[in-house]
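Deliverable D4.2, example record:
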Amino acid sequence: MTRPLSLAAVALALLAASSLGAQPTPFRWPTSTPAKVGLNAAVLDSLDAEIRAGKYGNIDRMVVIRRGQVVTDKTYPRDYDKVYGDSSRASASLNNSHDPTGPFNYFNPWWHPTYRRGTLHTLQSVSKTVASAVIGVAVTRGDFPALDTPILTYWDTSAVANLDDRKRRITIRHLLTMTGGFDWNESIPYSDPRNTAGALEASPDWVKFTIDRPMMREPGTQFNYSSGESALLAHIFFRATGVDIEEYAARHLFAPLGITQWHWKRTTSGTIDPEGGLYLEATDLARIWQLWLQGGRWNGSTIVSERWVRESVTPHVATSTRAGAPQYGYKWWLYSNPVRKDAFIWAGSGFGGQFPMAFPDQEMVVVFNAWNISGGPTLPLRAVQERLIRAAK
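Output generated by the structure prediction step:
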């Protein structure tokens, strides 16, 4: 029999709830059909059939939302114990053999791709984009410093290794645009032990590991993908606001959007993992992308300023000299619209195949979740983007 709560327990529960400020407003996506919102259902059906046939590997969710209505929400069950069970026990870089049962073993089905086999899906590096959104909320509310503030404002420089004038010139904006200039190699497969991100995740203090890295180039001059720079942003966020970035997100981003369930991994030192640690259910993740489509407003209230929304999805740096490579905003991947070259698709991109995307011209949000981490077929992203755009009337 369940015992009734004592008055003290009730009071503590109410205190805990009130400590998060405004409580989430219940939200349920309205639903419609592709035809009613001007989408070619045959295109969505063909994608669904291709995914079910395994053409793109281990995709496990596809959600399509147009004009604020869910028109497709498909789940594809995968037996990840069977797919990755042996790998979870082997000695390899991706299973973090120093802690094989922990949250950074990417083959462990208890942690990946869903949190404890539930509905919360790992976002991997889409976490970076969400962390940027939280910073945008804090900027809007006046709680976060100017982006051109030098990051060493938030460190005791006497304890920082490899300190030079270039490191002193790194600003918050540089971290948001992946142009910090640190010596960092994340351009090789994550299974390769030379990948700096693997050493980051194996280190006892991610913030110290990153801030102590030597410099490779002048800040602001070149894009260089670095998960460590997001770890630094979490440190700066706490030092600047006095609030953990997860708690701030819970109060000022998740609650207004009606997001009530999430998990956010923490590092061995206890700090939040903003580079790849967030788990959300796909239609909850879509709310953040829909918020951006709506210029930062939700239910008549401004959560993040329209100015920040525009600035965050403005190209700030090229990610590559390769033709067709995306541009980069404030942790947003900006793909050129294959139909209208002066427009962009606003995307997140996460290891294993996490692709939330907003198509502003088409008033559309699409989320793909997957767990393709050992080679094999993956989603042909650019081709799929074009198919989705051309499906919109």
